[in-house]
TrEMBL record:
This is Glycosyl hydrolase family 8. It comes from the Bacteria. Residues 1-32 form the signal peptide. PROSITE patterns: PROKAR_LIPOPROTEIN. GO terms for molecular function: hydrolase activity. Gene3D superfamilies: 1.50.10.10, Galactose-binding domain-like. Keywords: Glycosidase, Hydrolase, Signal. Belongs to the glycosyl hydrolase 8 (cellulase D) family. Residues 422-435 have a biased composition (Low complexity). Residues 409-435 are annotated as: Disordered.
Length: 687
């Protein structure tokens, strides 16, 4: 995917190498003792839902994405005290140079990651230094620079672009709240912006030297404007907010009332706004959703999450936009195409971009659509189209929002959130025969503040039954295995077991319903093996398979990868490329039975690492809706072995249920090596 430049360029975009530079010199602001809002800064948003992944998982995903983004796009140059965000992969500037939009993204991302990134303030100061060294006649950043010389190269007098200048101003406020010492710079920047980027009626212009009639909805970052209003009382930012919302509301009501979509460019913004003509500013249909307005649901959703019902229009529009994207894509974020007609139909399906689907995430959260939110969060962990700086920068900021780590600098008195957590059981019920055991996974998640130690206990057990947790205490965000063992004398019946998690912030509970049956009554069980084609000897039958590379796992064994028994195996990964392979089968475990899963697993790898786990293999139990009830086996390239090893897991807690057993191999190709996960001779035996 190659994204259209923000404006039509009069010069061809060249490709070259990025100049290296010397060590950074002293930054303009004194280095603070530490950030005031160190990442992860867990927030409780005012509306909506969070991704179902645990807080710890979300934080780790953000860190991984940030490391990748920083390694690819944060460049030390052109001067020794400058950093810039490279447009590598998108061709928006010659020699992969910076544009003001990307510089603004960087000046937002870096202070939000302070605490995780020990060099964040030094990097921020370098980003800000490059902006100061390349200001236009109005004190805004020259919007497009060469990657080798950092000289302005676009045609005409150097000018600024509103989106980048908005983000730069917001970044300065973030830095001031994070480290202090940037107030004078921030207020001066906002003053210049207000004077040259705000039209007389209060709407945002497209650029500082542009006409007072045009605007661009992707610049309408209401959460930024609210922060400006709280921080800079010398200018009437509330006027800007009111007029911006009025323009957007008029457009939606007139052109997309059912779907909430906004076009790339708008004319008549100082009167009755309407979509700009096609190819008005760019060589694409500027009168529909395009590579500019795909950012709108990210901004609308973020403002709604931060401000709740105070963001009446933004919350409504985010909800509509999310529903449109889900409908037009069939619930596949990869099919949220970059160009949408305002009636919520795809303008073209020949162009794809990761950021089109990524940007819907905050709106899906604000809309309260849990399944769609989870789907988008999972999509964010990929880059299916090999997108460059634009998509990866948007992804990084969207992931920070969706992880719950996006804090608002709008008020100097905003206190850090108090610590809190949630508790859950998966599954929530189980049936056992007297004398046997039931198992469940007790999950915890950070709902605000920071992670804390949570001690686990259980009450409401029937006589003769005991409950153990492994481990007995977890850090919120982690999980523990609960085992409830019954005695032969435990009375038959159904019991409500209360699991309690206790931390310094307080206690929370989850309920597990335990049914105990008698060995001589309705709880009798006929011994059986429940899986069909357990050794894969019937080939690709019974099992459901998927593979992102098209190499489904069940295959004939070879001398290089022999079977444990017979002549067929399930061969996961081993392609030397990013790949996810799955094999799954649904099975009903009879009531009153104990059930044991067993399988033979061989792992060999060419990965040289002794600590990293780029390649993984999971064994999971899912319900009929596809929700993971438990992960009963987790392996990686570090578990390589010679020959096969037998693995087992107790599935007795799922007696009386129809569940899906799923094996998933995932290879990232992160370290250049490859891992083979070879599965054979599976079984679920009951007795």
């Amino acid at each position: 995917m190659k994204r259209s430049a923000k404006r039509v360029l009069s010069l061809a975009t060249g490709v070259g190498t990025i100049a290296g530079c010397l060590a950074l010199v002293t930054s303009p602001a004194a280095q603070a003792a530490g950030p005031a809002h160190a990442f992860p800064s867990h927030q409780t948003y005012k509306v909506g839902v969070m991704p179902s992944a645990s807080q710890a998982t979300r934080d780790a995903a953000v860190q991984k994405q940030y490391d990748s983004w920083k390694a690819n796009y944060l460049v030390h140059g052109c001067a020794s005290n400058e950093y810039y965000i490279s447009t590598k992969g998108d061709g928006d500037a010659t020699n992969n140079g910076p544009v003001s939009e990307g510089q603004g993204y960087g000046m937002n991302i870096v202070p939000l990651m302070a605490g995780y990134d020990a060099n964040a303030q030094t990097e921020f100061n370098g980003l800000w230094q490059l902006v100061k060294d390349h200001e236009d006649q109005y004190g805004m950043m020259q919007w497009q620079l060469d990657g080798k010389t950092c000289k302005y190269y676009s045609g005409g007098t150097p000018d600024g672009a509103t989106d980048g200048d908005l983000d730069i101003g917001y970044g300065l406020i973030l830095a001031d709240k994070q480290w202090g010492g940037y107030q004078a710079d921030a207020l001066n920047w906002l003053s210049n912006f207000y004077a040259h980027n705000v039209a007389p009626d209060g709407h945002l212009k497209c650029e500082d030297d542009g006409p007072n009639t045009d605007t661009r909805p992707s610049d309408h970052m209401i959460d930024h404007l609210r922060a400006f209003a709280a921080y800079d009382t010398a200018h009437d930012w509330n006027k800007v907010i009111t007029r911006t919302e009025a323009v957007d509301s008029s457009l939606v009501n007139s052109y997309s009332s059912a779907n909430g979509l906004l076009p790339d460019f708008v004319v008549g913004a100082n009167g009755t706004p309407s979509p700009a003509p096609a190819n008005y500013q760019e060589n694409q249909p500027d009168n529909i959703v395009g590579y500019n307005s795909i950012r709108v649901p990210w901004h609308m959703g973020t403002d709604a999450l931060l401000n709740g019902t105070a963001s009446t229009f933004e919350l409504s529009d985010a909800t509509k936009w999310s529903a449109c994207a889900k409908k037009v894509s069939g619930g596949d974020p990869g099919k949220v195409y970059p160009h949408l007609n305002l009636n919520c139909t795809a303008h073209s399906t020949s162009d794809v971009a990761e950021e089109a689907g990524d940007a819907i995430g905050p709106s899906a959260m604000a809309a309260g659509d849990q399944a769609w939110t989870d789907t988008i969060w999972n999509f964010l962990q990929t880059n299916p189209y090999g997108d460059g700086y634009y998509g990866e920068s948007i992804k990084t900021l969207v992931m920070i929002v969706m992880a719950g780590d996006y804090w608002s600098p709008g008020s100097s008195s905003t206190p850090p959130p108090s610590n809190d957590f949630s508790l859950s059981s998966s599954p929530t019920s189980g049936s056992v025969v007297q004398g046997s055991s039931a198992t469940a996974t007790i999950g915890t998640a950070v709902t605000s503040g920071s992670a804390e130690s949570v001690a686990l206990s259980a009450s409401g057990l029937p006589s003769g039954a005991t409950a153990t947790f492994s481990p007995a205490s977890v850090t919120s965000g982690a999980s523990s295995a609960l085992t409830i063992a019954t005695a032969a004398t435990t009375p038959a019946g159904t019991y409500s077991v209360t699991v309690t998690g206790t931390a310094s912030s307080g206690s929370h509970t989850a309920t597990y319903t335990l049914t105990v049956t008698t060995a001589g009554g309705g709880g009798t069980c006929t011994a059986a093996q429940l899986l069909g084609n357990p050794g894969f000897e019937s080939g690709a039958t019974v099992w459901t398979q998927t593979s992102t590379l098209g190499f489904t796992p069940i295959t004939k064994a070879t001398s290089a990868e022999p079977a444990h028994a017979g002549s067929w195996i399930a061969y996961f990964n081993g392609n030397g490329s990013t790949d996810t392979d799955t094999a799954a089968q649904s099975v009903t475990i009879p009531t009153g039975c104990t059930a044991t899963l067993s399988y033979w697993l061989h792992i060999d790898t060419t990965e040289s690492t002794t600590t990293a786990k780029p390649d993984t293999f999971k064994v999971q139990v899912l319900n009929s809706s596809g929700t993971v009830l438990a992960t009963v086996g987790t392996y990686s390239n570090l578990d390589k072995n010679t020959g096969y090893a037998k693995k087992t897991a107790d599935l007795s807690s799922y007696a009386g249920q129809t569940v899906t057993l799923k094996f998933t191999g995932a290879e990232t190709d992160a370290n250049g090596g490859t891992t083979n996960f070879i599965l054979d001779d599976t079984a679920i035996n009951t007795q």
